[in-house]
Amino acid sequence: MIRVPVAEGVTVDMVWVKGGTFTMGNNETPKGVKLTYEASKPEHRVTVDGYYIGRYEVTQGLWRAVMGDVPSKFSGNDSLPVENVSWEEAQQFTIMLSQLTGRRFRLPTEAEWEFAARGGSKNPFAGCDRGQLDKYCWYCVNSERFPHPVGQLKANALGLYDMSGNVAEWCQDWMEAYGVDDLTNPRGPKKGEAKVLRGGHYNGTSPMCTVYDRSWYVPSGKSEYYGLRVVMEVGE
Fold first, then answer.
1. Rounded (to 5) percent helix, strand, coil in the chain
2. S-S: 229 plus which of 33, 54, 59, 138, CB 3.0-4.6 Å?
3. Which domain holds residue 12?
4. pLDDT in tens, 95-141
5. Where residue 104 sits, what CATH number does that domain have?
6. What is the sign of the dihedral through the CA atoms of 215, 97, 234 and 154?
7. Distance CA 173, CA 187 (A)
């Protein structure tokens, strides 16, 4: 793990993810989530190079240190994940974080996000199977319908917290249908109408919190369910 100083008393913890090849997506459609699960088809092989990803979702304390204020609906605790931020604001955050630290930060690609969330596991959730979900994930069953401070539940195999639940996380990619071809370091289409979100959230059902479920929203859109996690590029 690398701990990158941002401001006095504020750091961003980055975990190394060794690259590899995995099966991205899912071919099944559970009851009640047809729209987003249909978007997870078909399964296809993807290879990603190594990268650093945030150990935690971006917190309100980190956001304030970089941006100066906090837009969250649920505020008052710097350890809470920042939410109510648009993709466009998330992009601005990564630019300013890069300027403050001298490192190059960005949002994860959708493939990087899913690879890290899976952590080498075949379980549908980030670190566990359905029977253990409340130990790893804040969702509608255990969250009392509000976000919780990051890192309180168990981490996945890579030491990443809250990859399932708490807040959904913006990805870099424009939303498009999957193909069947093998891909290496996919970046998504060059243009589109909506950006991808991953990981489910504190008010979501368990199927929404699987590692392969896809949701999407316009880049300017905000929600108290939407936050972010950052990637740090290697060699920067």
1. 20, 25, 55
2. 54
3. 2-232
4. 999 999 999 999 999 999 999 999 999 889 998 888 999 999 999 99
5. 3.90.1580.10
6. negative
7. 6
What's the rounded Cα separation, in Å, for the pair 27 and 44? 10
Residue bearing tokens 């990981």: 199
Q: Round to whole Å and give the CA distance between 93 and 163.
A: 20
Total tally of structural domains belonging to the chain: 1
> The tokens of 181 are what?
């071809």
Respond yes or no on whether the N-terminal peptide bond of residue 42 is cis (omega within 30° of 0): yes
Tokens at 24, concatenated: 């991205």
Cis-peptide, bond into residue 149, ω within 30° of zero: no
> Does position 152 have pLDDT exceeding 90, yes or no?
yes
